[in-house]
Specification:
This protein is of the alpha/beta class. The chain contains 14 helices and 8 strands. Bound molecules: nicotinamide-adenine-dinucleotide. The site of nicotinamide-adenine-dinucleotide has 23 residues, from helix 1, helix 2, helix 5 and strand 6.
């Protein structure tokens, strides 16, 4: 199959991620059939999708709302969802038996050459596809929430995936405006979730050790490293930080205080952090300016507006 043959996409499982993917596929001119398990879920998905579309209309990314909506259909029949699909994006719950059962159903009804991409955010692709009839067409296509805005997709493969299908999936996501990275081998958590958990572990540790508050840990990240990371990755930041570039920076760090020895290295998240940090987060939200908002919905809308401004700087919106 060639890239231009992909016209029909099946979006399996709505929810946060599947609904967002559905909007992206439809706004890029593809026909999308969204599958969910019952009518109540479909009604919730429709609401999320229409909310996402209204947000994109309000921010100038969609001109013809009716045309985008007309490309989306909904079904509770897996056969109906995938029978004409050239690309299947699965975004069901992150539970191995459910992912395996969804793949079995997809393979029962989808054309034999349709690409299967899972949005799974941690489960290794090799486990999800261990009973697949056609593992050669299976890839991981892990988005970053919300996929209709954030450009990154992490593509994973197994030793059974046909390299041509990895290239096809990459070209497909690029056609949607994505930045696709391909992992050379299966790795739990892929790249991004490992990176953010490594940073989060250190933030939790700093708070638990009484070094700073939850609010200041977030503030330090947002107005320090993260504002640079929105422009370049950390290797490039290091390159720019020393007259002799990355190598000079590494030599300088190696000759200084060994901070690596002090960084958190515990291997299970502390039980009580959630409850303790939640109280601080609730206070932070209550004290936010009205412009940002005081509840998850309004704050997420603010986040998405700010994301759009950053994406514009990257010519990605
Ligand atoms: N939320 C995130 O930030 C995020 C980011 C990247 C990837 N992911 C991954 O995307 C996937 C979906 O996550 P989410 O946050 O959208 O979850 P969610 O709970 O919001 O949505 C899951 C959807 O799957 C449907 N579903 C339930 N059982 C199903 C089944 N048997 N068959 C098909 N659909 C079924 C649900 O009705 C729901 O619409 C997970 O694998 C998750 O790890 C999530």
């Amino acid at each position: 199959m060639k890239l231009e043959d992909i016209r029909n996409v099946a979006s399996i499982g709505g929810g946060v991620i599947g609904s967002s993917w559905t909007v992206l596929f439809a706004m890029k001119g593809l026909n999308v059939k969204l599958y969910d398990i019952n009518d109540d879920c479909i009604a919730a998905d429709k609401k999320t999708i229409e909310g996402n579309i209204d947000f994109l209309v309000a921010n100038g990314a969609i001109e013809d709302k009716a045309a985008v909506l007309s490309r989306i259909s909904y079904t509770t029949s897996m056969e109906e969802a995938v029978k004409d699909a050239q690309f299947v994006q699965e975004s069901g719950p992150e539970r191995l038996p459910i992912k395996q059962s969804m793949l079995e159903q997809i393979e029962t009804f989808a054309p034999v050459d349709a690409i299967y991409a899972t949005s799974a955010s941690g489960l290794p692709l090799g486990q999800i596809t261990e009973k697949a009839m056609h593992p050669e067409r299976c890839v991981g296509g892990h988005p970053y929430n919300p996929p209709h805005l954030i450009p990154l997709v992490e593509i994973t493969k197994t030793e059974k995936t046909d390299p041509a299908n990895v290239e096809l999936a990459k070209a497909f996501y690029q056609m949607l405006g994505k930045e696709a990275v391909v992992l050379h081998k299966d790795c739990p958590g892929y790249i991004c979730n490992r990176l953010q958990l490594a940073v989060f572990r250190e933030m939790v540790d700093l708070v638990e050790r009484g070094v700073c508050s939850v609010e200041d840990a977030d503030k330090a990240l947002t107005f320090g490293p993260a504002i640079r990371w929105a422009i370049f990755g950390h290797n490039m930041i290091m390159q720019l930080g020393h007259k002799d570039g990355l190598k000079g920076m590494m030599d300088m760090l190696a000759g200084g205080y060994n901070l690596c020895a002090d960084i958190a290295n515990w291997d299970t998240l502390p039980d009580d952090y959630g409850a303790k940090a939640q109280a601080e987060i609730d206070t932070m939200m209550a004290n936010f300016p009205d412009e940002i908002g005081h509840n998850n919905h309004d704050i997420a809308q603010y986040r998405d507006k700010m994301l759009i401004e950053i994406l514009k700087l990257h010519h990605k919106f």
